[in-house]
Structure formats: C-alpha cells, structure tokens
Design a protein that fits this description.
By secondary structure, the protein is α+β, with helices and mostly antiparallel strands. The protein contains four helices and six strands. It has a six-stranded antiparallel β-barrel with strand order 1-2-3-6-5-4. A hairpin with a 6-residue loop joins strand 4 and strand 5.
C-alpha cells in the first residue's frame, strides 16, 4: 500500500499484476534534486523562506526552517511560491511533514514550460550552480 492510497483509503485490486500496481505508484513527472531559495506566502500571512530540495513540472518539496503558520495548512490550501521562476507560481499544499512542504503546481502550460527549462539545467550536475545564480539574478 502506498502512502497516498493509505491516506485516501484507495483499495487495491488484488487481481492487478505487480507491473500494473507499480505503474500506478510511479510519479508521472521526474523529480530532480535542487537547492533553490524560495519564499512562500498564503493570503494574509507573512512570507516564510525555505529551499526547494526537489522539483518536477508538477510540484516540489520545500524544506522550511521556521514553519510558524505552515502547521495550520491543510491539503489543497493555495500558496504563492517565489524564487523558482520570474513570477510567483501558484501551488497547492499536498502535505507538510517533518519541516518539508510538498506542493502541487497549478496546471499552467506557460509555467510548466518555464519549469522544464529550470529542470533541464538541474539535470546536468555541473549546471546546478548556474541555476542557483540564474534564480538569484531573477529575484
């Protein structure tokens, strides 16, 4: 049983082959390690800083040092994320656990294309510093 199926209590079909079960468990977007400083803000709340530790075109994991109001977030709450792209990115809370906030990005084709460019740079290890510098220059 996967974490999401446990959370949402999605029953598994015992007749599914192992390959069918594993295919559903795999993420549909490849995640890449990152170290990008970001700011997170919810409407009416003070900004909180963190660092994107992995990212895909669909979402990100963000390590938060001083969580304050983030403990009160619920799955599906909308946030603004700045520091990854030129403009703030709308995203929704998936879960906040052990100082890591997992978010899902809004399904916006323009944002996903920009994220693909950043992720393409992250995919090559020698480019990680360049991505960090690029993101810093855009802030």
């Amino acid at each position: 049983m996967t974490l999401l199926s446990a959370i949402f209590r999605i029953p598994r079909n015992p007749r599914d082959s192992p390959s069918e079960r594993y295919a559903r468990d795999e993420r549909d977007a490849v995640r890449h390690d990152a170290n990008i400083p970001v700011t997170i803000q919810a409407r009416g709340m003070p900004p909180v800083t963190g660092s994107v530790i992995n990212i895909s075109v669909r979402g990100a994991a963000i390590r938060i040092e001083h969580a304050t109001w983030l403990f009160h977030l619920s799955q599906g709450d909308e946030l603004g994320l700045t520091g990854v792209l030129d403009l703030p990115v709308s995203c929704w809370v998936v879960v906040f656990d052990e100082e890591v906030l997992r978010v899902h990005f809004a399904p916006d084709d323009e944002v996903r294309e920009q994220l693909r460019m950043v992720i393409g740079l992250l995919a090559a290890p020698r480019n990680k510093r360049a991505v960090h510098a690029l993101v810093k220059s855009e802030i």
